[in-house]
Design a protein that fits this description.
By secondary structure, this protein is mainly alpha-helical. Helix content is 98%, strand content 0%.
Length: 102
Amino acid sequence: MIEEFIQRLQQTEDKADAIVAAAREKVQTIDHDLDSSLVQLRASVARSLQERFAEIDVQACEQLEAERSHLRGELAERLQELEHETQKRRDEVQTTLLKRLL
């Protein structure tokens, strides 16, 4: 009877060891799958970020060029105004000098 009990206990331990071994394999498989999924997700996120940054870079360049063009126009207009004002004052100074000389 004791031998039977010991034999059953040994069989139960063997079954438990087999269950634990199967569970460990399952955990390793899940861990491996999780790592693979994580690597794929990271790669996907990196690609998405690169694509988005490329879009943002293009938009920023376009906005910067538009702003430069606008500023060039404003500067050209201001330069023209200053040249006109300079010519006007030059004419006034010449007129004043001529009046004083005569």
